[in-house]
Amino acid sequence: MALTRLEKVQVWLLKAATGVLFALFRLLSPGGGAPAGRRKLPPVSSPLLLMSATRLANKIRRKEVSSVEVVRAYIHRIQEVNPFLNAVTKDRFDAALQEAKQVDVLIEEETGGEAVLEDRLPLLGVPLSVKESFALHGMPFNAGMVSRKGVVAAVDAPPVALLKRAGAIPMGVTNTSQLCMWCETNNHLHGITNNPYDFDRIPGGSSGGEGSILGGAGAVIGVGSDIGGSIRVPCFFNGIFGHKTTPGVVSIENQFPVCSGRQAEFCSSGPMCRYAEDLLPMLRIMAGPNAGMLSLNTKVDLKKLRFFTIPHDGGSPMTSPVSKELMAVQRKVAQRLEADLGVTVQEVHFAELRYAFQIRGAYMSLPDKEGKPPTPFVELMGEPGKPLWPFWELLKRMVGQSDHTVPAIGLALLEKAHVTEPSAFIIQQKERLQKNMDELLGTDGVFLYPSYPRVAPKHHHPLFRPADCAYTGIINMLGLPVTQCPLGLGEEGLPLGVQVGAGKLQDHLTLEVALYLEKTFGGWRDPGAN
């Protein structure tokens, strides 16, 4: 399909703007990477680090292992890998050990038996990592903002509180991109986070600290948020599982930044983990009183589902073409589904996906029902003072005096330049795509879709193609649940993966497919293994 004149102009402007920003960044910013010397993580040595949270909880309840032993194993692993990853920004090891000791005493004194503990405290004694944009009582709560350096959470965000109430023990908080609005985890407060499979590669964002420490076996379960791929992109790049829930199920309260305009319709909190069997119990806990909105207790027969595969976005000029190895592994998933389950995986295409980047940009800027627009990004960057002036901030950045990253400044500049109302054409494309997808999926349809056009890129390279996250962002705009699933390692030793989506409130379908794909493709791989 030929580009319209307007599309050609948009593509040229985007490439020109990102090219300039990238050149400035490389000229004026230090690179990423781990300390000189070692280029690979140490392999996992403790068998406790190779067990799912579900299995660990069972062993702790049965007194086959103590919570203290598990927590100490993860403390050792974090201390071993974090110098290379820069994923955990603040630990609470002393408090975690004290809580683990209390767990072990509780188990010794429990008279109701293992079943009572499992029902009341399903994650009792299991370590947990938390994205720093979630409030975790007594811990930093700054979302990568230098101006919020001294901010400490006075409460727990609801999903965190529910996981703690279920017995999980927070080990610390993890790094994010500045204000959680970029696909690389880097800020001027905590620095840049590295990918556990290749320190020169990005771990994704904005939940990149979570993805990195989980992928590096420094955590077994974690908490993320997703308004454009912030769970799924890090899970893809770090070879782990993650679930973007149907919006409105898991609370997004007590997070920073706060959603405004219509953004709450597109934002989800959800679980991130190394083992697929932990997704469903985590989601059940995190959803709290809203768990009844989902059919999490319904047994799923994969042979009775309808499967679809969408190989790409139809050739958007804004995004990179999907790489051959990612196209091939998605075809392999479809072939295995057909061979193992006896189903037919139908290939489908949606012309509207070509406009995914523009659709997300338009809907993220829409006002709420009362007509109030989203909080301008320049106001968030100026927190807690006045809105900043992005042009001045860019000049400061050029002489190394800005507290803000190039992507954040670039987003602020783009926001200033964006003064027109969303076009009727883009709104029409989204509405048509929504209707077609909802009708296709119903309550028994599952689809495969690329997570990103390529495997984890090198540090700062997303500045070249900022629209590549449209592959995840469009799913947020449609309000669909989707699970990110690892599919082994590719030619460069980097994780492969795919998004598995379903109709609204059909989260249980994608979680069941995740279990199947883990068994079929092997799930998470130790990045330190030979």
UniProtKB/TrEMBL annotation:
Domain Amidase: 69-511
Entry's transmembrane regions: none
Catalytic residues as annotated in Swiss-Prot or TrEMBL: 131, 206, 230
SUPFAM superfamilies reported in the protein's UniProt record: Amidase signature (AS) enzymes
UniProt GO cellular component terms: endomembrane system
UniProt-listed Pfam families: Amidase (PF01425)
Membership in a protein family: Belongs to the amidase family.
Protein name from the UniProt record: Fatty acid amide hydrolase 2b
Upper taxonomic lineage: Eukaryota, Metazoa, Chordata, Craniata, Vertebrata
